[in-house]
């Protein structure tokens, strides 16, 4: 190393012994990384021997998140682009790594169970520890169950099957020559039931041809899978969802997992209705193993073991249709093709996955109808009739307070416009000048409301809409403001009002709209200008459709 640095002209400086504070940045990150390793190992329950994989996984995620000293991730600072975090998965979660079809045999599983250990360094993929094969692989074809921890889940399965999970200490420096490499595939079967007399009884010992560790007995369960045409007998091991339906499948399964078995213990005859198991099962557990098959047609329904329940469901469907008068019985017209119907069956379950009821629905087979042959006459047509609107009512409510703001004494105004009974436009505003009276404040608010009122009136008067206004009225709760807007006479108390607000007078003079008086209790714009008591506020909110009761 020294020669290499010297050739490059680099001066190498080292810290003093036992003084980690001289290299504070690196030492501080070592502490951060150590804390991250502890968290990953503790949360995933992965053994400490996998601390190296936990370190790689932690640093991979650390480089892709923002830290308090910067708004950019370390990855973005280095590469100049933002990283994606959608592919991040919990360390130690359960993973199923896909087996490529090029190396998969005909009866091999398409995926292998493993534990998520991190992310591939040179390729795009994940590092998965395959428990049954005791090796680490990198693959992109993997599915995760993020809610299950791989170690915990596997140990539960192993405890049901009767052997322990022994992960190899590939991080240890000690000699592994005496360690048994395949401790996961050793399973022995012994007789656990006397229902079928065995031809020979084999002791619970290992074969001389295999270096197997003895384990507890594997319990085989005989199940009856109910179907319409009969029943299927299959065997499964306790704690697994395996279904072995023949002697050949039993033989291949035991050979693949190095399980010793006695063929005389298995019975695939279908004449035995009861589910014979090699382990004690309660009646509830046996009932759950019986498959409930949903029929596809009427014949299957009446021939199934639940025929009485399906008949009740069909009778109920017909009775409901008769009560609601779904059809009218007529004679078969000549030269008319009749569409067939069919019954659709289903089963309803509750939150505990228990059957609530059997359900049948009678439907017409509209898919058999050709578009060129009265396609639109198959079903009853439904429509919603809407009468054309020819006239509308346009109304506007205007109101204002008077000098309630003690800082500048500027009044607040507001208005709301309705088309028929529907509120369309509303506004609350602060007037631009100080009003000297309530009349002046109301007059200014009327003028501001008139601007929006005229715009909305012009929209409705558009000839393309072909609409008419039966009435267009503005309401105000101040008689003085109404009188002043209708009178062209000025006096000493109104001469100071800005000319721009007299725009209202011209509109009234041209009879563009009417202005009428309304009491304060009924003026809907009053809600925009002042606080109200609860009862009055709720009443106004209902009238303005601000909420539903």
From TrEMBL:
Domain Integrase catalytic: 1-82
Bias-annotated ranges (Low complexity): 190-203
Renumbered residue ranges of the record's region Disordered: 187-206
Source domain of life: Eukaryota
One of the GO BP terms on file: DNA integration
UniProtKB keywords: Hydrolase, Metal-binding
Protein name: Retrovirus-related Pol polyprotein from transposon TNT 1-94
Organism: Trichonephila clavipes (Golden silk orbweaver)
